[in-house]
Design goal:
Blueprint: H1 7-11, H2 25-53, E1 56-57, E2 65-66, H3 70-76, H4 79-112, H5 117-128, H6 131-142, H7 148-155, H8 170-195, H9 199-207, H10 212-223, H11 225-240, H12 244-249, H13 261-271, H14 275-300
Antiparallel strand pairs: 1-2
């Protein structure tokens, strides 16, 4: 009987000991701690403080004074706020539509024709350029008086085009600039999703006589729904946060034709020192984005995929 006991039993007088499983939770918390501290300092604390400011009259020149819901009432009645929301929505529609269509086209071409690493790297380069640099480069290219593009236009005998100074062209021009900057990154997201689609489906459909358009509409798009939902949600939120390009190129002009909501919040906070009012607009914007995101995910059925 003694021979059947574990060696530990012989060393402890006949009673077997069970080695306790090492608890790694302390080590896990140690690794997570820097991220949690960064989140608390740079996200959680500013959010809580911003919510508090939204209920106060605060101008950076004195202590906040609690005013209750007065800021929220003023925002709902502020015509300039809703005008900025309308300008932002116009930009979101133009930007998301053009960016998504072009990204899908590029991803489909890469998936069906070439899978060159060099091409993918080239597509990603504009996304790596800082937004301020992108705005400056395109401002120099499209400036009415000194821009290279207008120099070419006038050299051919046509009048100069006010890409950033014409109220009708301001938002479309800014949309084109940001489409150029972000389409490559969006295309790579779509391309990664297309790589998850089994090649057998394309081969079977091709044997049945399906062309490229039918393959794209009947196989690629339906199976790409989760990735499509992710891209559209990220593009929607990112488009509502447009600020850098507007601040560099038009500064909200001409006649507020390009004054998007982020730039209006910036003006209220740092030009007019209405910090409490600016915080209120930011909170309202967060609520609107949350509602739009939830509706978008519901309509796109983001959790469903036809991939087995």
């Amino acid at each position: 009987m003694t021979a059947l006991l574990p060696r530990a039993a012989h060393r402890t007088g006949g009673t077997p000991t069970v080695r306790r499983r090492r608890d790694d939770r302390r080590v896990a918390w140690l690794f997570i701690a820097p991220v949690l501290i960064g989140f608390a300092v740079f996200y959680l604390y500013p959010t809580v403080r911003g919510v508090w400011w939204s209920f106060t009259d605060y101008s950076l020149l004195g202590d906040p004074t609690f005013v209750g819901l007065e800021n929220y009432t003023a925002v709902l009645q502020d015509k300039e706020f809703w005008n900025s929301m309308g300008v932002t929505l116009y930009y979101v529609i133009v930007n998301v539509t053009t960016q998504t269509v072009l990204a899908l086209l590029l991803a489909a071409l890469m998936h069906r024709l070439t899978r060159s690493v060099m091409l993918r790297t080239t597509l990603l380069l504009p996304w790596l350029v800082p937004n301020v640099t992108v705005g400056l480069v395109w401002l120099w290219l499209l400036d009415t008086n000194l821009g290279f593009v207008n120099h070419l236009i006038t050299s051919m005998g046509f009048p100069a085009v006010g890409f950033f100074t014409n109220p009708a062209l301001g938002i479309p021009t800014i949309s084109i600039v940001n489409t150029w900057a972000f389409t490559g990154y969006t295309a790579l997201l779509f391309y990664a999703g297309m790589l998850q689609i089994p090649a057998d489906l394309y081969e079977s459909a091709s044997l049945d006589g399906a062309g490229e358009w039918r393959l794209f509409t009947r196989i690629t798009l339906p199976l790409l729904r989760p990735v499509m939902a992710l891209v559209l949600v990220v593009s929607l939120i990112g488009s509502f946060q447009i600020f850098d390009t507007v601040a560099i190129t038009t500064k909200g002009g001409p006649v507020n034709a390009t004054r998007v909501i982020y730039y209006y919040i910036y003006q209220q906070a740092f030009n007019f020192f209405h910090m409490g009012y600016a915080a209120t607009m930011a909170i309202v914007l967060v609520v609107i984005l949350g509602v739009l995101t939830a509706v978008q995910l519901r309509l796109l059925r983001a959790s469903e995929s036809q991939l087995a």
